[in-house]
Design goal:
Bound molecules: zinc ion
Shape: globular
Number of strands: 21
CATH architecture of the largest domain: Distorted Sandwich
Number of domains: 2
Oligomer: single chain
Structural class: mainly beta
Helix content: under 10%
Order of helices and strands: EEEEEEEEEHEEEEEEEEEEEE
Radius of gyration: 20 Å
CATH class of the largest domain: Mainly Beta
CATH topology of the largest domain: Glucose Permease (Domain IIA)
């Protein structure tokens, strides 16, 4: 069964209560949107260990952790909590499925659809730099503090949408686009450490990757200016650059991505978007 998630749903708070746990309280709490693209913050007893679908999840000393589900995540998942006393509890999670906007465009000149071969080596190098920056799992806790939009402007593109050009499905759009004039300040959506700062990537243009800890990162793209350097610590709301139309962009905007490790999450689910935002499909991808 497919279910469309409304643009601005209520925050879903899940409290999974397990009878007979040590203090009689919740053995596992999860807050966030249990849906494709969703980021969830969990809590277990200090000292407990957590696995999601068999993979170990990093847990802070106070029992907090973060998980996320990708654009096309299947509905059924399992969280396993190993209590400090060795007892194991399993919790089934049902992730809500979403429907994404699909747009077909035909009759385009072929060279605008396929990356020219002379760019492939450069593209591979840049992709690997982004992947490495996002793969860093630090013990920062900036993800606990929530997120803000990286710029003021019009929401011109949303997560999950996909174009089919000349019959070829393109890589889906994983970002939240905020369009505003070139030079508009871009701020850090949450605190962290800058892991990548490059002025001129082929598709992304000026790009920043900020590590918020526990594998959660923000990527900011198409920047006309970058004001921070790799290794620098940034605060939530601090200006890190400016909006531009660098790389493959049809107009000035910032494309904001959120990752949990390699999983691409929906930034639109962790900020309060203006009503009606994202209902118009973007021209700026
Ligand atoms: Zn975009």
């Amino acid at each position: 069964m497919r279910r469309t998630v409304p643009i601005r749903p209520l925050i879903l708070l899940l409290m999974l209560l397990v009878a007979g746990s040590a203090q009689g309280g919740a053995a596992l709490e999860l807050a966030g949107r249990l849906t494709q693209g969703g980021l969830l913050i969990g809590r277990v007893a200090p000292g407990a260990r957590v696995r999601l679908d068999g993979d170990t999840v990093r847990v802070a000393p106070d029992g907090r952790f973060v998980i996320g589900f990708g654009r096309d995540a299947p509905p059924a998942h399992m969280i396993e909590v190993t209590q400090p006393d060795g007892g194991i509890e399993r919790h089934r999670l049902e992730v809500a499925l979403r429907q994404y906007r699909i747009e077909r465009v035909d009759g385009l000149p072929e060279k605008t659809v396929t990356l020219p071969p002379e760019y492939r080596a450069r593209r591979a190098r840049e992709t690997s730099m982004v992947r490495k920056a996002r793969a860093i799992i630090s013990d920062r806790l900036d993800w606990e503090q929530g997120f803000i939009l990286p710029a003021r402007g019009r929401i011109s593109g949303v997560y999950g949408s996909q174009r089919i050009l000349n019959g070829k499905p393109r890589w889906p759009h994983y970002g939240l686009d905020v369009a505003a004039p070139t030079g508009t300040p871009v701020v850090a959506p949450a605190g962290g450490i800058v892991r990548l700062a490059e002025p001129d990537f082929l598709l992304e243009g000026g790009i920043l990757v900020i590590d918020h800890g526990f594998g959660v990162s923000s990527t900011l793209m198409h920047l006309s200016r970058i004001d921070v350097a790799v290794g620098e610590e940034v605060k939530k709301g601090q200006q890190v650059g400016a909006i531009g139309a660098t790389g493959r962009a049809t107009g000035p905007h910032v494309d904001w991505r959120i990752n949990w490790r390699a999983v691409r999450l929906d930034p639109g689910l962790v900020v309060d978007l203006p009503a009606g935002a994202g209902t118009r499909q973007t021209e700026a991808r």
